[in-house]
Amino acid sequence: MKLSPDLRQLLAQAATLVEKVDLLNLHANSLYLQEDLEVARYLAEQARLMSGCAGENHQPYYRGLAVSLVTLGDIGLYISPYAETLGLYLEALAILEQNDDHITMIRALMGVSWVYFSGGDYPAAQSYIDRAISAWCH
User: Fold this and answer.
1) Which of 7, 69, 111, 133 could form a disulfide with 89 if both were Cys (CB 3.0 to 4.6 A apart)?
2) Measuring CA to CA, how many Å separate 4 from each of 9, 27, 62, 93, 99?
3) Taking each helix axis from N to C terminus, what angle separates 82-96 and 102-118, rounded to the nearest 10 degrees?
4) Among 57, 75, 66, which residue's Cα sits nearest to residue 21?
5) Three-class DSSP category at 97
6) 69 contacts 89 by C-beta, under 8 angstroms
7) Are the C-beta atoms of 136 and 105 separated by less than 8 Å?
């Protein structure tokens, strides 16, 4: 997939893999919001793969991994089976419970709620909405 010249330049200027992952995630989310789902998905997948060794001493960069999973979940609401999408959000939540990223946690909780709502499991959807609201208020 061809990257925009601007993104290509920013990635070339990034000093670390963490910076590259953050750039990919930022652009993936921006393109998702602009409904360019194919490119957004590609960038989020690249961020997801790169996150596996982008941290200190080639350890996983968990925040980058969680953000990419949530973005992939958001995209999946439009183009993937709900079970796959739910799995992405739940994987992100498992990571986020060990890391402090308030906004991404709320995005993941809202995503899980939407998957359950779309599948007709309204009590589960309400439970995750309540958790998202609680996270927002604290």
Assistant:
1) 111
2) 9, 10, 26, 31, 31
3) 150
4) 66
5) coil
6) yes
7) no
Contacts of residue 84, defined as CB under 8 A and 6 or more positions apart, other chains included, come to: 76
Residue 115: C-alpha distances to residues 37, 119, 123 (Å): 18, 6, 12
Q: How many CB atoms lie within 10 A of CB 91?
A: 17
> Which candidate, 59, 58, 51, 56, places its Cα nearest to that of 104?
51
| Tens-level pLDDT at each residue, the chain (138 residues) | 778 889 889 999 999 999 999 999 999 999 999 999 999 999 999 999 999 887 778 889 999 999 999 999 999 998 888 899 999 999 999 999 888 888 999 999 999 999 999 999 999 999 999 999 998 887
- Give the distance, in angstroms, between the CA of residue 73 and the centroid of all CA atoms in the same chain: 7
Q: Is 77 exposed, middle or buried (0-12, 13-18, 19+ CB in 10 A)?
A: middle
